[in-house]
Specification:
The chain is an all-alpha fold and about 170 residues long. The protein is built from seven helices and no strands. It folds into two domains: about 80 residues, no CATH class; about 45 residues.
Length: about 170
């Protein structure tokens, strides 16, 4: 099945919701000329979950009809329940946080700044490279220190607030 090259397809691709395998969708509601679009990933996942729940179809059959695994169906069901339709939009790819600037590294940065508040971020990045063998950008050092300054500390929580570890 060839994908059409129209504005909807471009919009779906831009929003990361273009189904990479629309040809695997075999549910009759997604047939030619129908209302549903097999290229719309959010629509396909929503209808898959709806079929499994409302039509009382077995999970394996519902998943197969929409070109997904049972685990994908379960994940979509959970995402839909917890976050609504927005939960069906794929997450942005790539790292979700600083993996080089660990708590131990930021602790060192704060210690160095306590000793010499005039240190520049480039000098702090060089110190991290020497101590931990990790190359970090000076701007990343600045952002990590800023996050540490603005993040509420566990020992400074509001009275009656639940600890973060729960």
């Amino acid at each position: 099945m060839a994908r059409r090259d129209d504005t909807k397809t471009q919009a779906l691709a831009a929003s990361r919701t273009l189904n990479p395998r629309p040809e695997r969708v075999t549910d009759p509601a997604f047939g030619p000329g129908g209302f549903f679009d097999p290229a719309d990933l959010v629509q396909v996942k929503y209808e898959m979950v709806r079929k499994a729940e409302a039509a009382d179809a077995p999970a394996s059959q519902a998943a197969a009809d929409f070109g997904f695994s049972r685990q994908s169906l379960y994940s979509a069901r959970t995402a839909l329940r917890e976050r609504g339709l927005a939960g069906l939009v794929p997450a942005k790819p790539g790292p979700k946080g600083g993996h080089k600037l660990t708590g131990q590294v930021v602790d060192l940065l704060e210690e160095l700044l306590e000793t010499d508040p005039g240190l520049r971020s480039a000098e702090l990045a060089a110190a991290v490279r020497l101590r931990f063998g990790v190359s970090v950008h000076p701007r990343s050092v600045e952002r990590a220190l800023q996050r540490r300054r603005t993040a509420p500390r566990e020992d400074e929580q509001a009275p009656g607030a639940a600890p973060k570890s729960l």
